[in-house]
Design a protein that fits this description.
Strand content: 5-15%
Helix content: 40-55%
Order of helices and strands: HHHHHHHHHHEHEHEHHEHHEHEEHHHH
Oligomer: single chain
């Protein structure tokens, strides 16, 4: 090693030795002060990477973000970047710089670097925030919304600092606990330092995992379940018990009004009656049948599904022309726009059946209860199909399947393949499918060569199709065999595109040309894009119709394409669309 490098290392070691001595003296006299000083000290490579990850987090994602969500996501990514930077800095110093002749630089250069890095980080963050505010306004305009102002968006940096500081502090606290455990092991067992530190880290990781999985996750799940079960006992203002015997919850129903839950009471109390349907369509209409069973209607899933079949028998559902199975989202929510569209298209000559399998909203059920959703869909579809298949083939209703969001996952759970669906169901409409849907994933992965993940084409559209708007439902212009299967999915829907794989790998949809409502300069970054799309999930349905997870009246066009009513025209579709919009004033966003 050259003499100059030895001299520099010696000078640096002497300076660090003096610092260590001072800290040790402070630690002896003022242990709390020394601990605070240790927690406030930062790694400069970590700062540089934190700024880089923060700037990455400011790039556009699927949906517009306000300063609050951006502040949280920016803080999380800055903390991740700081950790990555610390590891990189340690590895470079340990394995690379020791072989560099001019390292370490002189003390004046080191001081200059320690000033320049934080200043450059703050400057880069401010510039990126200004550019990000512009991108957010552009994305908001693409969806017909008003974006954030630049001045308001600058608040992001303060919140991000607080979030990242909290996360780094949490990590350092766990690190100190690990060191404390290692010190205890050395004192009691005289084991080597390296082994003690390894065991200390393993013990802290194990205990932390057990606390998170056993107490935090399950405890939070229990509290959410209790909280939403209380909400389930309430009734939406304006929802009244139906008197029509064609509705569950009516006095004649086997499923009591008070047992249907919040969303069940919503479902059976809504909809157009025969008189209103006749006024819209012209020909005399029938009273639509709405069957629903709640979690409180019977103690077990098996008893509840038998009640579903009994309600279908009681209401005469098997005598209608169309029977629609609707596996629901987490709370038992059924999209009122979709239900109203179906009743209008078939002029009341149909029965719709749904049931509740959870108290929890879709986003919680998606994270913690996906198996229950799939099992519930399988039980409902198989039992109703079993009873339906016992009817004479020429004297039974057409059997259709509709699902939205987590309801698509619940519906897919009843089938092993596309062939099985086509053998048992007369048509399927699935809207906004989660990325983890097994069947959807298989079809997208096996798409035709040249087709994109955002707009996949499977087997030239012969059996199953994918559309991102009502205008693209009938594309490609090739034969579409019965029974038809249709997925509607927006390019900007985070429910469709969110996946844990976003942490470490770039998906195809971010390498392809963007869809109709995604900015072309959205990019993939490790860790960062995952947290961006995770934040988008929280506002997935809070954007205008036709974007994000808000599919509006495109379900009408999808339903017409699947069911192909006799003599139906585009004018009929627009007449029904107008009626849906007129009667949509009392629809809420609950899912």
């Amino acid at each position: 090693m050259p003499a100059t490098q030895v001299d520099r290392l010696a000078a640096l070691a002497a300076r660090q030795g003096r610092i260590i001595a001072v800290v040790a003296e402070l630690g002896g006299r003022y242990p709390l002060t020394a601990r605070i000083w240790g927690w406030l000290s930062l790694d400069y490579t970590g700062i540089a990477f934190a700024a880089l990850f923060f700037c990455w987090s400011l790039t556009p994602s699927l949906l517009p973000r306000d300063w609050l969500f951006q502040g949280i996501i920016g803080g999380i990514n800055a903390a991740v970047g700081y950790g990555v930077g610390c590891v990189v800095g340690w590895a470079v110093a340990r394995f690379v710089l020791v072989r560099v002749p001019w390292w370490p630089p002189s003390l004046p250069v080191l001081r200059a670097v320690r000033v320049a890095v934080p200043v450059a980080a703050v400057f880069a963050a401010l510039v990126a925030l200004v550019l990000s505010a512009r991108d957010q306004r552009e994305l908001a305009a693409l969806m017909g919304e008003e974006g954030s102002t630049t001045g308001g968006y600058l608040r992001t940096i303060l919140l991000s600092l607080a979030v990242s500081a909290a996360l780094v502090g949490l990590w350092r606290g766990l690190r100190d606990v690990g060191r404390w455990v290692a010190a205890k092991l050395i004192r009691r067992t005289r084991m080597p330092l390296g082994l003690a530190r390894t065991l200390g880290v393993l013990l802290v990781v194990l205990v932390t995992f057990m606390l998170i999985d056993g107490i935090l996750v399950r405890g939070t799940y229990f509290l959410f379940n209790q909280a939403f079960s209380v909400r389930d006992e309430t009734t939406r203002p304006g929802a009244v018990q139906p008197v029509d015997p064609a509705k569950s919850g009516s006095p004649e129903s086997l499923a009591g009004w008070e047992t249907l839950g919040y969303e069940g009471r919503n479902f059976v109390s809504r909809g157009l009656d025969a008189e209103e349907l006749t006024a819209v369509n012209g020909p005399p209409a029938q009273e639509p049948i709405r069957v629903y069973v709640g979690l409180e209607t019977a103690p077990t899933p098996e008893e509840r599904v038998e009640l579903v079949v009994a309600e279908l028998e009681r209401t005469g559902a098997f005598d209608r022309s169309v029977l629609v199975l609707i596996p629901t989202t987490g709370t038992g929510w059924v999209n009122p726009t979709a239900a109203r569209a179906m009743e209008l298209v078939h002029n009341g000559d149909l029965a719709m059946v749904a049931w509740q399998y959870s108290y929890l909203p879709s986003w919680i059920s998606f994270l913690a209860d996906r198996e229950k959703a799939a099992a519930a869909g399988k039980l409902l579809i198989e039992r109703v199909h079993e009873r339906w298949s016992q009817l004479p083939e020429d004297d039974r209703p057409q059997l259709f399947l509709y699902g939205e969001s987590l309801g698509t996952q619940s519906g897919e759970g009843a089938f092993d393949s596309l062939a099985e669906i086509r053998a048992e169901i007369d048509g399927v409409l699935w809207v906004g499918p989660p990325n983890s849907n097994r069947l959807w994933r298989q079809l997208v992965d096996r798409r035709d060569p040249g087709a994109t993940e955002v707009r996949p084409v499977y087997a030239d559209g012969l059996v199953v199709r994918f559309a991102d708007s009502r205008e693209t439902i009938l594309e490609p212009d090739t034969p579409w065999l019965d029974p038809r299967v249709l997925y509607i999915q927006h390019a900007s829907d985070p429910v469709v595109w969110w996946s844990p794989d976003l942490m470490f790998s770039r998906p195809d949809w971010l390498e392809e040309p963007p869809g109709s409502d995604r900015l072309p300069h959205m990019r993939w970054f490790p860790f960062v894009t995952f947290w961006q799309v995770s934040a988008d999930l929280t506002n997935a349905a809070g954007v205008p119709d036709g974007h994000g997870h808000n599919y509006g009246t495109s379900v009408l066009d999808g339903w017409v394409a699947i069911t192909q009513p006799d003599g139906w025209t585009e004018a009929d579709t627009e007449r029904v669309r107008t009626a849906i919009e007129v009667y949509a004033g009392d629809d809420g966003p609950e899912k």
